[in-house]
Specification:
It is built from two helices and twelve strands, in the order βββββαββαβββββ. By secondary structure, the chain is mainly beta. The strands form two sheets. Strands 1, 2, 3, 4, 5, 6, 7, 8, 9 and 10 form a ten-stranded antiparallel β-sheet that branches.
Amino acid sequence: MRLTGATLELLRGDEATPLGVDAEVRSLSSDAGARSELSLELTPPQGTIEVAGGVVQEPLAFDGTVRFAGVSLPALLAPVEQPAAALLRGGVLDADLTVALGPPSGAGDEAARIRGTATLAGVDVSDPGSAGDAFGLAWKSLALDVREALVPAALGGERTEPIRATLDGVELIEPSVRVTRTERGIVLPAALGEAPEASAPAGPAA
């Protein structure tokens, strides 16, 4: 089965974010426990997301690769109805990951095991509307070399164990953190909690 040149529109209010979809499924079977081979390419407003590997419907499982190339996270997250997502005003993701989801993870039917590399560049977290210049987080580049990350409840269910990760390398270039403390406390964006007025006299930075 093949799908070519399709477009999904992710809606948030009156705004639509287009997402291009090309997909191919091979060895498709009526047996829910049989493995099918999936090749999927998603094209958000900026960059591409490629997924390739084996999929089983029941119990749900995936074993393959997930690649992000030049994906703008603010554009991808634009349809998300979550105030905290709007704080991310800049950020481009490149990643090459091996993902085992469900039984192939070897850690339970709802777990995920992830390996690979990821780079998040040009990050800007701020909210001029509620925090002004009193709060900001930014960096030029953050690169992670993930030997293994284990997410116990990736497919849902109750999480009884913490997420565990082993990293072979971390590189953070040109980080910038701006935090302001006033007489009423630390100034935070409204999405992160009740914040003092950003215009209040500032005390020493926390």
